[in-house]
Protein 1
Amino acid sequence: MPSDTPETPSLRFAPASAPSVPLAFVAAESLEQWLATLPAAQSRFARAQGFTAGIGATVVFADDEGAMTGVAVGRGTAQARARGRFALAAARAALPAGVYHLDSDLAGSELEAEVLGWLFAGYRFDRYHANAAPKAALCAPEGVDAARIEAIVAGECLTRDLINTPANDMGPQELEEAAVHLANHFGASHLVVKGDDLLAQNFPMIHAVGRAAVPARAPRLIELNWGDTGPLLTLVGKGVCFDTGGLNIKPGASMGLMKKDMGGAATVLGLAQMIMALKMDIRLRVLIPAVENAIAGDAFRPGDILQSRKGLTVEVNNTDAEGRLVLADALALADAGESDLVVSFATLTGAARVAVGPDLAPFFASTSALVAPLMQAGETVADPLWNLPFWAPYETMIEPGIADLDNAPAGGMAGAITAALFLKRFVTDTPKYVHFDIYGWCPAAKPARPKGGVGQGARALLDALPELLAR
């Protein structure tokens, strides 16, 4: 359920007035200096426990009566910190139940990233199975905007919940319900066009991709609008709630994670929640083409040529490259709305995963001025990004000759770039366009990120928005 702050206690800071014990956050290179500041007995105890300040390492101090007087958590070496994120979060589950306050010289973005990670570590997806949350709580350190961090955590948890929910409970209808619930909570307006009305209102490719699904899972375009002042930001999220691959059916091993193919939609809804909860001075528009790429007698076929909202024709050379088709119609609508910035999020290509792996979110920007703010923001808020180019010499690869565009060029080279170039053909009147090709999934548990759905790029974009919208 969307809210201004997370309702789960493990996802919030403890009240500042709560009795708490100190939590020392110790870097490996500062271990000896820190040990020298302790009473001799505590220093000997820490050494005896083998505390080396590695990431996730903990040591608990107690008085003569056995009452806890403090804990220490390792930050690891500089090399270890460079190889990962959220060192503080790595220790949260191992700490005894209680309330802690941070005893550390961290400040600024480093401090904010660590306490953000601490809250992320309280996330559990327990809709179908009970998963105990950690009992250790943290007071918000001085200098940290606790309300902002809690709002960001709430948005991220919405994204995770939506991605983690299996397709039997997260089809186009349920995705619509989640979006409408979010809109109602924050006073946004909403509009949904579904089924054959998509054809009547000129969204032919969204209809074509989703028409094979059963009526209860009919294709639709979901739109939210919020805010009365400020620049107009339009977020477009791929909402393929399950992707069989269509008639170019995926093998079973590739189909197993396809509940996450609506990760782009989940990301923009989580980001929209952050923006609205923070009451940012912008006008926000969210567009989600929500479909199920199913197999039935009226499924679209390889070799079909589809009309698009933009007027461009598209030859379908692979029905498993459906995400760019539904995004194209939504982007054409976004492009006609005088947006100051259009941003799309999609779990779009395997090529992006081959290029940068699951941790990095590659993005494409229509102007070079958009790149530096996003890269800097990604580093600042520990939401890493990598810039890939809209490489114009590859435009010919998406021009089949029989139609204006090819949805799946042969050869397999530069797949992330050619997909991004395809999308860019539908954003011709908006100078500032950014596309994120995200994975939306953490394949193995890491600090602050359990295995499963995860947000990528949203926090970086949130941080960069003031500069992006000002340029």
Note: Residues 9-144 form a domain with the Leucine Aminopeptidase, subunit E; domain 1 fold (CATH 3.40.220.10).
Protein 2
Amino acid sequence: MSSWEVRFSNSRQLPYFYNAGTGESVWEAPAGLSNEQIKALPGAHHLGGGGGASSGGGGGGAPSKVRASHLLIKHRDSRRPSSWKETNITRSPQEAESILREHMNALGSNPTTEQFGQLASIHSDCSSAQKGGDLGFFSRGQMQKPFEDAAFGLPVGGLSGVVQTDSGTHVIMRTG
């Protein structure tokens, strides 16, 4: 019997997993739990997009929230051409895309969340790099449209192609 439950962090506005038996808290789903087991945990409604009666809308289809990580390469035309890595980013949009494609090639065709997170923590120009690129759960209307469309269009574990937004050049991995 699992001691895991889903709780909601008021400071981060994100769900997390809490093990009542050990007192351990983690942001990612605990290893060894299937999707069905996760959906059955106490507090699973905090995860959004679950199958409960309050999930809203008609029968099935698109989730109301997704969780995603990304790797962002900014360029001189980005909305804010600076980052935690570089004060003044001068690369061209084409150079940013080339760098991103190199990172995507390094990941291979079927990267794990951990592999993606490691790459994002080193190379992403977004402050989410501190969390392996994790942006947490978000609903439609919270992200720039091209980013949102790509994230909501991916299966869990799926990796996008190159996505251009006002922030720069992204690759997105849907994690929930």
Note: The two ends are 24 Å apart (CA to CA).
Protein 3
Amino acid sequence: MSPKSWLRGFHTAPEPASRPVQLVCFPHAGGSAGYFVPLSAQLSGVSQVLAVQYPGRQDRWREPAVDNLDELAEQIVAALRPARNGGPLALFGHSMGALVAYEVARRLAPARLYVSGCPAPSRGVEATKGIKDDAGLLADLRRLNGTDAGLLADPEMLELILPALRADYHAVRTYQWQPGSEPRCPVRVLTGSHDTRTPPHVVADWRRHTTGECHFHEYEGGHFYLTEQTGRVADLLAADLAQGVH
């Protein structure tokens, strides 16, 4: 699979851009690369921002979605290796994307890892364990309040998006962390203040998943706090990325 199938860029890299920092963003379950357009716009002056487009959605809707998180990470690593520009690489993942970014980091050794809205890998996402059918899946999406309610009420749209959603939720529900090498880079853990998925006791264990520094940042909002707090999150990332994340 060509790297172009997996990676989307929305804004021109900063100038001079001989070896810009690459920030690769990983979307949530049911999400797409386009979720990160606002963040890309905010960071266009300091980084080349790329977003991962998982198969089974939008322009890749004809491709089968991947319902195994480790397999998804392996495929993304294969796409990222030839796409790297030789400069430093940073990874940012939200919700399911945080787990994918973490597993990619175990394989690619980035300079920085940002994980958002997600319990530590060794904890698992307990909230998804009991979701066994479409009704439970859709109820969970409504609780998280990150998907257009009109979209969830449209039978024709649901027919298009449900296959990818089923695969993503299955990937999260069945993910089992395996002991092994951990990322050596600094990790920043970002959460929403009202996100029931990420209370302190389930995110604190992210410290176990890096041999580098681990810092925690809380923002006002729920599971999809990033939608309202893009500017503040971009400021945090920009301060790191402007240093070249060596």
Note: The longest helix spans residues 155-174.
